Structure formats: C-alpha cells, structure tokens
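As promised in the previous annual report, we have extended the structural survey to additional targets. Below is the entry for HNH endonuclease family protein.
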Amino acid sequence: MLAGCEGLTPPADGGGPSGSGVPTAGDGRAVNPLDNPDGTKPGLAAITSTEDKARARALIGKVETKGRGPRTGYERDKFGYAWMDSAPADVPFARNGCDSRNDLLKRDGEDLRFRSGSDCVVMALTLHDPYTGKVIEWTKSRATEVQIDHVMPLSYDWQMGASRWTEDKREAIANDPLNLVPVDGRTNSSKGDSGPASWLPPNKRIRCAYSVRFAQVSLKYELPVTAADKRMMLEQCGG
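The corresponding structure token record, generated without further manual editing, is:
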C-alpha cells in the first residue's frame, strides 16, 4: 500500500477521459457533493461553477491537519466485516435488511436487475463511474469490475486516529455512504490507502468533487488529513 507523500506534484492521471481517448460518460444521475452532505444521493457530480468552487474551498479549509501515524496494528476486520448491515443505526442505510455494498450499488446504479425473489442483491446494472468517466455495464459474474471505494481509506483513517476509536465508530465510517462510491475496480485498486497528495481520480473534472467528499468524511468523523493532502485538495478546487 502507498503511504502518501509530502510533495505537491499532482498525482499521475493514469488514463481517463482527460485526453486519453476514453469516452466520457457524463455524470448520469450523480449529485454535486456540496448538495449531498449525508451521501445518500447518487454518485459524485463534477463541481464546475466559480461559486461552488469557492464553497468547496471554504469546506476544505475547515479540515484539520497532522502527520500520518504508523500503520501498525491495522486490519480490515477492525472496521467490521465487509459488507455488513449491522453498522450503528445512525449510519444511513444501516440495518435495512440489505448489506452496504448492495445499498451503494442501488444508490448509484441504473437499470438495476436483482436476484430472483430479492429487492436487495443486485445482479446487473449500468454505472456512470466518476473516477474514469466510463459507463460500465456490470454483472455479478464479473463482480470485481465494480468495487466500492472508501474515499477516505480505512488504513488512512487508522493512521490518522481511528486506531483509538471504539469498534462502533470504526464500523460506522467503513459503512457510511458518505465515504463509499462504486467505481471501476482496477482504478480503485490502484489507489491503495493513498491520500489526495499521492492519488486522485484519473478523471480530472471530478477531482474537486472528490476532494470535497474527502473533506466531508474528515469533518464528520473529526479525522485530520496530512498538510500535503489538504493543500492538494484545495488546489483541485482552484485554491
């Protein structure tokens, strides 16, 4: 896993619709994260207006910073098993009879098809992937083609203070739709536990929205980010 970096050289594009020939999908039903503070609305729409970019910088400016701590002791299971439906009841979608992965597929997917007799288990969908700008026609037989990204990675959370949290709070951030986005699996795998200073979505037009969502999670859970990550986040929104 990547450990982050302290420089401010923007992360490599890694392909995507900003000039690599990959067709742009548009935002589909995606909502501007500034208008979706609890993460219950679909997707991650681009932030484009001057006014919204100013709002974005103001939000990111509230994020606290500190150095990244050690990864010692981190295990995925310390944030609960993936994907659970038993996160604390104040987490949106929790305890609704459907696990958090399927909740997120239903939130962001279009043309949903479910397992026979179920209104939970998604078998196929169309996804407008914000990270690459591609349209993905996904089926459960190719499950890893779409992965659920923790915008603020769990290992990053651990290093920034979650190692001292209660089990309930760790389960909350791991299953909170504010911190979860269905995306292209290969692109998600390339992210590891990186912060914004060392990884940003290949789709340049979504980078301010991604930075806002990272900040929203940070503020909700009172988790700082590194100074380099905060500077990169501000830069994506014109700061």
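The first strand starts at residue 110 and ends at 114. Helices lie at 50-61, 100-108, 154-160, 167-175, 185-191, 207-220, 227-236. These points will be discussed at the next consortium meeting with the crystallography subgroup.
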